[in-house]
Amino acid sequence: AGIRLEWNTFRRAGWNYLARQMGYAMDNLTRKRDLLARTALETALPSGSNYPLGGGVLTKAAVDEVLRDKAEIGYPVKSVLINPARMMDMFTSSWAMPTGVLLSPTVTDGLLRTLTYGNYGGATWYANPFVAMNEVWFGGDKSEIGWRQTQGTLETKSDVDITRKADLHAIYDAGVAFYVGNAYTLARIYLT
Predict the structure, then answer these.
(1) pTM, whole model, 2 decimals?
(2) Which of 109, 124, 140, 185 is least surrounded by Cβ atoms within 10 Å, i.e. has the fewest?
(3) Where are the alpha helices (DSSP H) in the chain?
């Protein structure tokens, strides 16, 4: 991932522009890592652990079915990966909370700061903006699923293109590999 920073633009916009552009480049790198992890998870997902759900709406019954099925085979769900907007949908409807009950300001503040919410179904819910809106991933404890191996370190390189009056900044990611060793804990709800 990288950015090209025109000198005229930088002169007018200042350091905030550089910080924002570097943030975009790091988001791009994160998307690439998440795509690698997603590929590993999809490959390892057992055929009976894919739960299609029609209507495009996540229901409490669908989530409870996954939680119950995984508990019955001895691999209870301990972590859930979900898009933050889908998670917010859960809290604005009555499926996760009794009708008329809103999350306390403390819980809401913690959710917005850490992107995690614990305790529904005994699992910790992790919000990730790069998870598709139509998917919810379920798994056991993170330490039981598999691992991520990293070789090398993140590197940055910079150069100046004096003829075009621009700075070039590149970010090279470390070599990352994902391994799923225990697919029994995995499940996915796929909304259609």
Answers:
(1) 0.71
(2) 109
(3) 7-13, 15-44, 60-72, 84-92, 105-114, 142-145
